[in-house]
Amino acid sequence: MERFAFVLHPLRFDDFTRKYPLLRHLPESFVEKSFSRLPPFKASHITGVRSQTGVEAEGWFVVVPVSARLMIDLPFREVMLPKLLRAGRVAQGLGAGIVGLGAFTKVIGDRGVSVAKGLDIPVTTGNSYTTASAVDGALLGARRMDISPEDATAAVVGATGAIGRAASAALAGEVRRLVLVGRQTRKLEEVARSVQDLGTRTEVEITTDAKEAAGVSDILLTVSSATGVLLEPSDLRPGAVVCDVARPRNVSEKVYQQRRDVLVIDGGVIEVPGSVDFGFDFGFPPGYAEACIAETMILALERRYEPYTLGLDIRPERVREIRELAKKHGFSVAGFRRFEHSIPDEEVEEIRRAARRAAQRNSTTA
User: Fold this and answer.
1) pLDDT one-digit tens code per residue, 222-238
2) Could you give all domains of the chain from N- to C-terminal order, each with its CATH number?
3) Helix/strand/coil for 165
4) What is the pTM of this model?
5) CB of 171 within 8 A of CB of 146?
6) CA–CA dist 135, 142 (Å, integer)
7) Are 128 and 318 in contact (CB under 8 A)?
8) Tell me, what's the pLDDT at 13?
9) Tell me: the pLDDT tens digits for 69-78?
10) pLDDT, tens digit, 9 for 90 and up, residues 136-166
11) 184, 160 in Cβ contact below 8 A?
12) Closest CA to 129 of 328, 350, 275, 284
């Protein structure tokens, strides 16, 4: 039996109230600050993870009870790093062979590097499979929206960053045209050359104008490190699929509030093989999880107890490898998520119908 652990934290106020309904009657800031004083703790025992190769694994969710807002505001070295190390030691004590970092625990500080140095077991952020599943989720979303990827134009906003480079390489060969978006032309040209060197049929272009790229794209991946919103509702064409992986988000919340003809997702929802019981409600249907959780499970099932993805560097070869390992063990992208919650099939179908109506109106007025 292989063993892993995964570190979670509450993202929003309703994550507290889902577990403790009475808290909804108290001020948010009071609840957040009160919980942040508590030490990390084991939230659940994960059972029933079974690879299609026959290997089984068990694991644990370890919670750092600090909200996303506080996690960003609190000093990393003085406050958050000790909390994350304590969470890692809880995982070690439970017998985990590897620990994954979830949500903002893998964003703050140096993205897991210092945590890994302070523990006796390897650490992964899960960002290799997050990148792979974002691309796979966007392509699946395109098909659900009646877009043929092989005939589509896709754009990567933030293509010169670590995830952007890896995502661009993963999209090469999947789409007809790929537009790379970034702030510096020289760096964009470097990424474009690396993508073209893969030898696929995909046409590669570059631009420094995110809005221009959005206006011509059927599929968008946004992974920029920009601190402000880059895309507004008017920037997107009807029926577009937007996968917003960036934190802070690159896409305005107004897009999915006002553009009911556009599918906005955070990434793919992963179906976990076996009869998995997470023992904890973290906003996903039974048997499904985020890609960063899945990467930790895959590495345990593969007996790859190593720091697979850490820091800013996400290597394209690791993205390709973890995608193949996922297939080997029976993990698959089976849906979509937004704000770390799954999007119901009914909502996707409503968006698809709205996109078709918008396309019909545009053809009539053309």
Assistant:
1) 988 776 789 999 999 99
2) 2-125+273-330 (no CATH), 134-267+343-365 (3.40.50.720)
3) helix
4) 0.85
5) no
6) 11
7) yes
8) 64
9) 888 889 999 9
10) 999 999 999 999 999 999 999 999 988 899 9
11) yes
12) 328
